[in-house]
Fold GIY-YIG nuclease family protein.
Amino acid sequence: MAWTHILECSDGSYHVGSTRDLDQRLFDHERGLGAAYTKTRPPVTLVASFESDNVEEAYLFEKQVQGWSRAKKKAIIDGRFDGLPAQSRKGYRPSVQDPGSANPNGRGQAPWEMRRGRPHWLED
């Protein structure tokens, strides 16, 4: 069992993390032994936690939520799961695998990016 957690820091910002032991991790954050981000923003308050079958799932969900807008994080904290798609950032587009992209991480290709490969004048 593992957890993805969202903490609200003293400045109102959110910290998203994952752990196998939620109680211990919260204790660490409260003592300033947690993440560097929360260390400078005490106290922290647990505002949401999500159980996963294993730490890999919790970590992957952590990384997904970290990329969300503040509005989308607030929606999940409030339990408004149906409204999550509407809270996406303006212009958001899902990843598209494009092996010919100048960006090998599969984020697609912006119009100004050049395709990989040989210049057309070198092709037979």
Summary: The two ends are 57 Å apart (CA to CA). The longest helix spans residues 55-66. The mean pLDDT is 77.
